[in-house]
Design a protein that fits this description.
The protein has 199 residues and is mainly alpha-helical. It has helices at residues 2-10, 28-41, 46-51, 55-68, 75-88, 92-105, 109-116, 124-138, 145-153, 158-181. The longest helix has 24 residues, at 158-181. It is globular, with a radius of gyration of 17 Å. The N and C termini lie close together (11 Å). Residues 1-13 have low confidence and may be disordered. This is Carboxymuconolactone decarboxylase family protein. It comes from Vreelandella gomseomensis. Residues 55-118 form the Carboxymuconolactone decarboxylase-like domain.
Length: 199
């Protein structure tokens, strides 16, 4: 699997001819969502500029992202799961984006570094949520009973087990898009740049 990830990264430049839209150049059905994102964030994330080529994909991601924000997981837990999955999927754009997101949610620098390094955070709750999110992603939903039990024993609920399915779905949408489209980092995200480890 690692070999495949390395091959995909090596082909990024060959696959990077997907348009990087602006709110004006995008298909009409995507323009309102791009303008809303730019207004909310102060810049247009390049992932949205790439997704805009398929307005339904952009709408799906933005809608699901809004739904995920309503889950019973804390904002730091939400971002930790997304960051951990993105790192495991070797998605440099999303690791940078969720590094910013988890910092904004209040995570300390040690936690952020651990997650970017694909290590276990020292906080017990964050350790549990990221471990289970990574397991769920790697197993494509076929969670082992021991992993499920450990997550529940850490104080989480069956509801939150299923809420992490949303995290996996979100990162499938964005990580896969970035792999296909070769999404470049925005200038605002370059200080948070990340490279997948060699092993």
């Amino acid at each position: 699997m690692l070999h495949q990830l390395i091959v995909y990264r090596s082909k990024e430049s060959e696959m990077a001819d997907f348009p990087l839209h602006t709110a004006d150049s995008a298909p009409e059905a995507a323009q309102a969502n791009l303008k809303a994102a730019e207004k909310k964030m102060g810049f247009l994330p390049n992932i949205f500029a790439k997704m805009a080529e398929a307005p339904t994909l952009l709408e799906a991601y933005m809608t699901l992202d809004g739904i995920y924000a309503k889950t019973s997981l804390s904002p730091v837990e939400q971002q930790a799961a997304l960051l951990a999955i993105s790192a495991d999927n070797h998605c440099a754009f999303c690791v940078a984006a969720h590094t910013g997101g988890i910092k904004q949610a209040g995570a300390d620098d040690e936690t952020v570094k651990d997650l970017r390094d694909r290590k276990t955070p020292s906080d017990a709750k964050l350790a549990a949520v990221t471990r289970f999110a990574r397991h769920l992603n790697a197993q494509r939903g076929w969670a082992e009973q021991a992993e499920l039990d450990a997550f529940l024993e850490a104080g989480f609920t069956h509801q939150q087990v299923l809420e992490l399915v949303i995290a996996c779905a979100l990162k499938t949408l964005s990580n896969y898009t970035n792999h296909l489209a070769g999404t470049p980092l925005n200038e605002a995200l370059k200080p948070l740049a990340w490279e997948a480890p060699a092993s």
